[in-house]
Amino acid sequence: MTERFSRRTLLGATLAGLAAPAAWAQAGTGGEPIRLALIESLSGAFANTGEAVARNLSWAIERVNARGGVQTATGARTLALERFDNKGQTEESLAMLRAAIDKGCRVVLQGNSSAVAAVLIDAINKHNEREPERRVVFLNYSAVDPILTNELCSFWHFRFDAHADMRMAALMSVIREDRALKSIYLIAQDYSFGQAVLREARRQLGQQRPDVAIVGDELHPVGRVKDFLPYAVKIKASGAQAVLTGNWGNDLTLLVKAAREVGFDGRFYTFYGNALGAPAAIGEAGVGKVVAVADWLPNVPTPESAAFYKAFRQRFPDPRDDYVHLRMQLMIEALAQAIGRAGGTEAVALARALEHADVSLAGRRGRMRAEDHQFQQPLVVGVMERQGAPGVPFDVEGSGYGFRVVREISAEQAAMPSSCKMVRP
């Protein structure tokens, strides 16, 4: 799909391409599949996040394979997703990286931990220097610590999500206009990403809303807190009118459940409050109060977006599986495009092709910035409403609540400068 397509043509292509059944996945291709290694939490506290990623990537791969796979110098080949369970641990992630390379995977996919991503970047840098004949590239769909495309930027690493500072700026564009807001509580998971969220929240609040008092500033262990009631009690006792959090997975769901139980009725400004149980956990108390930033939301008001979301729901009809990310689809489209340009998966050629990725799907376009390998794409901010309210045709996870888009941020507006000093082969 290109921008030259008319809206009608683009909508038709979306419907036809996205609805391709999985049974077509191997049609019309030959040769060994190109193995993509998913290194993610597939068991333990964050297994739901890992499985959600696997669904997104599997659907994207099915779509590529349904149209004949990817073109290489030796002919058309399909893509195949190989699952490696890191159990949410950095050491296990390194073991899974070695296993993936030994199995012949030359593309690594990971995202649900910036700490894991940083370890993988370092390990891949060293591996690629030590074993040039088995080099790999790393595609990151969710690890958003800004350092990964700044101080730790790597020729082998590509980030397809907006980093935390970009997401914070999008949220701040809404907070800036909330003139009734006078006090806010900051809480996040105690690791590199959560620390970056709170650091940037303090900086941007100081610049744009110095009148807002920060009445709480707290980090908690990742994935180990089973009872968030003590945290919720402190939030309510602080008198905060709103909470800003980068929490994700069960750490977000349990936090908002606890806040609801203690009667906190303020706003939640979130990075990930739009899925994985959070809307259902908050329930009616979240209407008009839970704000989320994302690269895309199901209620983006275009026919192309609606067709994309309907196709996902057709492929995964169980409402519990409702966690679709357009950026993950764009990532696989970018990979397929780059493999075609590079003629295969030789890592240097593939990385150079990925530096020029320019892909469109469902009416949204994203382009890779070569200087730091940070994907540039539009962002949206949504507020939780009842399904059926104006602007909310779709709910989330069968909860009866969806997110109405209240702010669209263009790729140019979302862009931020980088301090990357990339070493290239």
TrEMBL record:
Residues 33-387 form the Leucine-binding protein domain. The keyword Signal applies. Keywords: Signal. Pfam families: Peripla_BP_6. InterPro entries: BCAA_transport, Leu-bd, Peripla_BP_I, TAT_signal. Residues 1-25 form the signal peptide. The keyword RNA-binding does not apply. CDD domains: PBP1_SBP-like. It comes from the Bacteria. Belongs to the leucine-binding protein family. This is Branched-chain amino acid ABC transporter substrate-binding protein. It comes from Ottowia pentelensis.
